[in-house]
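Case study 2.
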Amino acid sequence: MRPCWPYAMAFTLTVTAFAARAEDLVVIDSTAAEVKVGAVVASGASITVPDKARVVLAAESGQIITLTGPFQGVPPSKAADGASGRVLTAISSLVKQSQNETSSVGAVRAADVKWRAEAAKSLQDVLAIDVADGGDVCLYDANAAALTRNPASPPGTVTIHAMDGDAMAKFDWPKGALLQPWPKQLPLGDGKAYVIEVSGQSEAAMTTVHILPPDKASSDLQRAAQLADSGCDGQAKLLLKVMAKSAK
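Prediction:
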C-alpha cells in the first residue's frame, strides 16, 4: 500500500503552523488615541502607532512588547506555548475597569495612591501592605512581607493589632522610608485581618491578608490576573503599571 505522502505532509505543515502560532497580546499602556488600553490584539493582527506615541503590549507567557511610533504592522510576538487566553481576558477586563473609574470617590482614591504608582518599581513594592490604605492584600510569602508608606509622610509610630486576639506590634517609621519589614512578633495568617494605626493619621486602616500559591503564576501578567482573581485589584493594577513603566 502506497503511503499518502501529500496528506501526511499537509498534516505536518498544519501542526507546525499551529505550534508556531504567535501569542495574542493585551494592551497594558497606550498614548495612542486609537489603541485603547485593555484591547486584545489577536495573533497576526496589524496595529498602527502614530508618530511619538507609545504602546505597551503583554503576552500571557510574560513577553512584553513596546511599540514606539511611527509603527504599522504585526507586533513581533513569540510563538505561543499553551496559552489559554483566560489570563488576557482577565487583564483586559481589569485595565478597562481601571480606565472607567471616573466617579468622585474613585478620583479621590486615585489621588491618594498616586504616589505608589510613581514609587513602585518591583513586585516587592506591589505586594507591600500600605499602612494608610487597608483593604484586601495578597502576598506570596508571609516571611518576606513588607509594609509601605508614602515616603513624603512625616516620621511616625505604627501600631498593628491582630483582629482575632490580643497580639500587636509597635515600631517607629523612619523619615523618607518607602518599605519596612512586617514585624516578626506578629505572625501573618491567610484570611487574617489586622488594624494598622499611624500616629498623626486620622483614621486606622484594616487589612485582610491573603497568602497565594506562588507556583500558580510564572509571569507578572499571570500574577496580575491571580491578584485580581483573589480580590486584590489594587495590587493587580499597580503591577501592570510597573510592567508598563519598566518596558523598554
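The radius of gyration is 22 Å.
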